[in-house]
Amino acid sequence: MSAMPVLERRVRMGLADEDWDQVDAITTSADIVAFTAPESPRPVIRVEGDEAAFSRAETRSTWFRATAAELVDLLHLFPNWDSYGAKPVDQRNIGAALELLIRIMQDDTPAPSVVPTTTGGVQLEWHLQGIDLEVEVTSPGRLHAFCERLDSGVSWEHDLATDLAPLVDELSKLSRATRSQTD
Asked: Domain range holding 164?
């Protein structure tokens, strides 16, 4: 993943105001935080003060808006948010999780649950159609996935630093299973 989340200070990012959709979000920073997509110099989420906005180009997918809003909400977590010494979620891990999703998700892929980890990471989870799939983002370059298929008993674990194929394959199966359930 080449693009990393960036922190910009009051700098126009190349998108006009009409290219952004406002959403409800609260942050504690007065800075602009812009999360970029792979191979794109333009951000897909901009957080400024107490507002968050998404690039319209990315809001076409059914999973994107809700998942991105959940990721932005993780910016609110403070040190010791679990009362056991948890670290706040690192904004770089939020950006890496968003970049991963943009890279691997299809328009009809079910949205993951977004869960903070106590070490400052992000976990993305799908528990649908007899498939348990979890991806932990512990740093922008460190991704770990676990999958268990309850119907067949097959399970696997992979570090995803260089090969996203197992994850993409499993999400494709999940999308097909979900689609056939609704047809």
From this structure: 6-182
- Closest of 105, 10, 101, 4 to residue 49, by C-alpha: 10
- Tokens found for residue 81: 């948010």
Is the model's pLDDT at 5 over the cut of 70? no
1 within domain boundaries: no
| Residues 126-181 pLDDT 10s | 999 888 999 999 988 899 999 999 888 899 999 987 788 889 999 988 888 777 76
User: In the beta sheet, which residues pair with residue 125?
Assistant: 113, 134
| Domains contained in the chain, number | 1
User: How big, in percent rounded to 5, are the helix, strand and coil portions of the chain?
Assistant: 30, 30, 40
Residue with tokens 């105001």: 17
Extract the tokens encoding 1: 């993943």
Tell me the C-alpha distance between 130 and 104, whole Å: 20
DSSP line for 57-123: GGTTSTTHHHHHHHHHHGGG--TTTTSS-PPPPPHHHHHHHHHHHHHH--TTSPPPEEEE-TTS-EE
Torsion over CA: 155, 139, 124, 6 (sign): negative
pLDDT, residue 179, reads 75
Q: Helix, strand or coil for residue 155?
A: strand
The answer to whether residue 47 sits within a structural domain is yes
Whether the predicted model's global pTM rises above the 0.90 cut: no
Residue 10's pLDDT is what? 34
Q: Look at residue 60 and tell me if it is in a domain.
A: yes
